[in-house]
Amino acid sequence: MKTSGALLMLLMAVLGLAACTSQDAAVVKQSEGVQQPAAVAQHPAAVEQKRQPQVSPLRRKVLPLLEKKNYRQAVELMNGRYHDGLEKEYIQAINGLLEVGDDAFSLGDFENAAQTYKGVLNAYPVEPSLRERISHNPKKIRTCMETCVDRMMEQGLEEYRRGRLKSAIRKWKVLLTISPGDEGAKKAIETATVQLQALQNLKNK
Questions:
Q1: ∠ at Cα 115 (110, 120), nearest 5°?
Q2: pLDDT digits 0-9 by tens, 13-36
Q3: Are 115 and 103 in contact (CB under 8 A)?
Q4: What is the pLDDT of residues 95-144, one digit of tens each?
Q5: Cα radius of gyration (the chain)
């Protein structure tokens, strides 16, 4: 009896284990049959945004200045040199600044023209491929700037002859900011300053 009872219990245990194994297999099979949700499709605008090249912060600041034709500030913002990704904007700013200088020159505003030409020379590209795209070569720009300096010297002398010593001194001082080594302007300033001081001393007596 004991033997048959033990066999009966063993048989029941085997049947229970088989049932559990069948249930597990069914669960696995069912889970394999369920399709996983597909990846959410991205919005076309988001995809297009990813494809577009990123605009650098510097370019984002330079573009509005170019639209307003504020070429001088655009060049200064780029620190007077070419930056990767800003080739077109850099050339546009330099050529635009040259146009400003040429316009001032044609109007007889030699002070503004000279300062503009000097700014262009300081920012003139060193890359040959970029230099070819600038409207004036450095030699021409220097010639224009030297002409402006000569005209400014003459304007100062004209003011001096009319007795406008302060105006003459101011023009010559501006000239020296463009051409610091101009000895003629230095001597003219010294002479006019002495005469101006003498006139002020006479007024104070």
A1: 120
A2: 545 544 444 454 444 444 444 444
A3: no
A4: 999 999 999 999 999 999 999 999 999 999 988 988 999 999 999 999 99
A5: 41
DSSP one-letter string for the chain: -HHHHHHHHHHHHHHHHHHHHHHHHHHHHHHHHSPPPPPPPPPHHHHHHHHSPPPPHHHHHHHHHHHTT-HHHHHHHTTTS--TT-HHHHHHHHHHHHHHHHHHHHTT-HHHHHHHHHHHHHH----HHHHTTSSS-HHHHHHHHHHHHHHHHHHHHHHHHTT-HHHHHHHHHHHHHH-TT-HHHHHHHHHHHHHHHHHHHHHH-
pLDDT of residue 12: 57
0.90 cut: is pTM over it? Answer: no
| Residue found by looking up tokens 């101006």 in the block | 196
Dihedral (Cα; 21, 22, 28, 31), 10-degree rounding: -150
